[in-house]
């Protein structure tokens, strides 16, 4: 009996009390089905049950987009950390510090260059994991740096958008990034270089009202929310019920606002094909600067 009591019983209790790690399973945001995290990662953060495209980090975007995941990240210009000495529930400087520690990113946009489908390309990715991808002075500087790098390398610029809009902690300085990024897009046009935008969920506010909707080719992931103001704000303003699927990628495609809706797994091949076509067009007949 001592063998059963001293050895077998503790082993059984240990098995019964074994805890499942918190990061082993997750739930789909759309259908609520449980998914093994490792299966979700293999499927590029797309739900295998309903096809819902979940959010992706900057590192994942770069790894999925560039050939073999090989790319070179660039250092981005520094800006004044807290131009307005803003404070809400905490100081803006403290909020930035916390976000940088949590996300391991300096700001809400990262830029890298490498090859897509064998073609040179510069890619800028908005980081929703950093203060909801909001647009401030640092993002404006990062976007301009990406455009300048593309011009220097004579390569197309591909931008992945994911944003809650302007960053309130920077006030009018945030709004000034709308014309600033628009000027950077015009620099690409003047250089005759392709500018491709991939809209992801969500893309809203001042980002939608500026560089996110100025691409030579506008691509979106399925069911991405794309708009300036939210549906509830619009309904309260116009006092009408909005159509089903309003502001979703498929609705915008049907109404001519974007060019295509592409599944995440197909994006690298699609981008490589588009870059090849646009590069060929550029060589055959350089893009004319806008008048």
TrEMBL record:
Its cofactor is Zn(2+). Its EC number is 2.1.3.15. One of its GO terms (cellular component) is acetate CoA-transferase complex. GO terms for molecular function: acetyl-CoA carboxylase activity; ATP binding; carboxyl- or carbamoyltransferase activity; zinc ion binding. Residues 24-291 form the CoA carboxyltransferase N-terminal domain. SUPFAM superfamilies: ClpP/crotonase. The keyword Lipid metabolism applies. It comes from the Bacteria. PROSITE patterns: COA_CT_NTER. Zn(2+) binds at residues 28, 31, 47, 50. It catalyses: N(6)-carboxybiotinyl-L-lysyl-[protein] + acetyl-CoA = N(6)-biotinyl-L-lysyl-[protein] + malonyl-CoA. Keywords: ATP-binding, Cytoplasm, Fatty acid biosynthesis, Fatty acid metabolism, Ligase, Lipid biosynthesis, Lipid metabolism, Metal-binding, Nucleotide-binding, Transferase, Zinc, Zinc-finger. Component of the acetyl coenzyme A carboxylase (ACC) complex. Biotin carboxylase (BC) catalyzes the carboxylation of biotin on its carrier protein (BCCP) and then the CO(2) group is transferred by the transcarboxylase to acetyl-CoA to form malonyl-CoA. NCBIfam families: accD (TIGR00515). Acetyl-CoA carboxylase is a heterohexamer composed of biotin carboxyl carrier protein (AccB), biotin carboxylase (AccC) and two subunits each of ACCase subunit alpha (AccA) and ACCase subunit beta (AccD). This is Acetyl-coenzyme A carboxylase carboxyl transferase subunit beta. The lineage of its organism: Bacteria, Pseudomonadati, Pseudomonadota, Alphaproteobacteria, Acetobacterales.
């Amino acid at each position: 009996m001592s063998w059963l009591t001293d050895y077998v019983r503790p082993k059984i209790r240990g098995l019964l009390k074994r805890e499942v790690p918190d990061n082993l399973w997750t739930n789909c945001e759309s259908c609520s089905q449980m998914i093994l995290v490792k299966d979700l990662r293999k499927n590029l953060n797309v739900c295998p049950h309903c096809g819902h495209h979940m959010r992706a980090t900057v590192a994942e975007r770069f790894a999925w987009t560039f050939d073999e995941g090989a790319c070179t990240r660039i250092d981005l210009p520094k800006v004044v950390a807290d131009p307005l000495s803003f404070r809400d529930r905490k100081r803006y400087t403290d909020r930035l510090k916390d976000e940088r520690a949590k996300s391991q990113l300096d700001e809400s946009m990262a830029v890298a260059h490498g090859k897509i489908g064998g073609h040179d390309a510069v890619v800028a990715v908005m980081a929703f994991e950093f203060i909801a991808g909001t647009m401030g002075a640092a993002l404006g500087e990062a976007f301009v740096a990406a455009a300048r790098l593309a011009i220097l390398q004579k390569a197309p610029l591909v931008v992945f958008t994911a944003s809650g809009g302007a960053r309130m902690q920077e006030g009018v300085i945030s709004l000034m990034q709308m014309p600033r990024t628009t000027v950077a897009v015009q620099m690409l046009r003047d250089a005759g270089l392709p500018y491709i935008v991939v809209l992801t969920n969500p893309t809203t506010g001042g980002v939608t009202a500026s560089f996110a909707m100025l691409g030579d080719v506008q691509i979106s992931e399925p069911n991405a929310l794309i708009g300036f103001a939210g549906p509830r704000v619009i309904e309260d303003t116009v006092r009408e019920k909005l159509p089903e699927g309003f502001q979703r990628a498929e609705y915008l495609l049907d109404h001519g606002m974007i060019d295509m809706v592409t599944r995440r797994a197909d994006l690298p091949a699609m981008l490589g094909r588009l870059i090849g076509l646009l590069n060929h067009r550029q060589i055959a007949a350089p893009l004319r600067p806008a008048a």
